[in-house]
Amino acid sequence: MPEGPELHLASHFVNEACRELVFGGCVEKSPVSRNPEVPFESSAYHIAALARGKELRLTLSPLPGAQPPRGPLALVFRFGMTGSFQLVPSDALPPHAHLRFYTAPPGPRLALCFVDIRRFGHWDLGGKWQPGRGPCVLLEYEQFRENVLRNLADKAFDRPICEALLDQRFFNGIGNYLRAEILYRLRIPPFEKARTVLEALQQRRPGDPGPLAPKGGKSRKKKSKGAQRGPEDQVENPPPPNKAPSRTRRARRGLPEQTAAQQPEGTSLQWDPEAPRVPEKGKRRRQPATSGRRRPQKIKADTPSLEPEETSAS
Q1: Nearest residue to 133 (alpha-carbon basis) of 73, 74, 76
Q2: Other C-beta atoms within 10 Å of 245: how many?
Q3: What number of helices (H) and strands (E) belong to the chain?
Q4: Of 10, 144, 155, 159, which one is least surrounded by beta carbons within 10 A?
Q5: pLDDT at 224 over 60
Q6: Cα dihedral 121→127→131→132 (10° resolution)
């Protein structure tokens, strides 16, 4: 559904596409449209567009010497759900082109068309903005902000913020998709009371990110190693970790305690090739493989033989 940004872009399109074009003749309306007829005819006129919120004003301005002599005419469009403007050749009009402005000769004849598939769009003669709509959120930001803060006592702000954002008296140009994007990106609960969300803007100081900044407790980003420890906790050239077994481990292994004179020079990670190797606790040394014969099992003396007794005759 076209909202403030889409109408703003549509006005730029009309101004850029029609800047050097001269239109002429009557304005043509499709027979199926229920919108009013446009009683305008001129041999040469220009078209300019201006958007404000969810409305777009199209101004038809006759050129000097155009016939019949007449003044400019303005129309205000509301796009509904599918409205848009297209500039096409006059012999290839798109479907649902409900209002058409044709260029004057010479040159190939073109048509600026207001296309609306679902026919919810509307235009009014006279060029006046719809009464009751607030300032544009894009082009009149300061007036828009002042209008909201000045009327926070209005009952419209008793509703959830997701409903209040659709009130065109205060948020002219914001619709369904824009309110969803705004609330999601600012992490505002959609059913929070509108006044609760907006009233803190009145006390905002310069440089303050404001109450609409993303809320959250602590940052989820992990601190770097340098940031986790303060400068007073950092020690220059910390000693290497001691890998030598402690006294308790030596006592368990039955090793004599080493004195400072007996310890080899260097760090504790150096290995003395002349020192006897101590087998690790809990590990059995693997016996070399035999020639293929299986070792007989040892039988205890006090255990009777499991083999059946054989006579000498056998």
Answers
A1: 76
A2: 15
A3: 7, 9
A4: 155
A5: no
A6: 70
Catalytic positions = 2-3, 54
Alpha helical stretches, state H, 103-218:
141-150, 161-164, 176-185, 194-198
3-state secondary structure (DSSP) of residue 66? coil
- Nearest CA among 60, 44, 49 for reference residue 14: 49
- Euclidean distance between CA atoms 231 and 239, whole angstroms: 18
Q: How many residues does the chain have?
A: 314
Inter-CA distances, 135 with 52, 146, 164, 183, 285, Å: 8, 10, 15, 21, 89
Q: How far apart are CA 182 and CA 190, in angstroms?
A: 10
Check residue 75 and report its DSSP letter: E
Pairwise CA distance, residues 159 & 165, whole Å: 10
Residue with tokens 């499709």: 30
- Residue 128 structure tokens: 């006046």
Residue 309 CA from chain centroid, whole number: 90
Run of H or E residues at 114: strand 110-116
Query: The whole model's pTM is what?
Result: 0.64
R_g over Cα of the chain: 44
Query: Token pair of 298, please?
Result: 């040892």
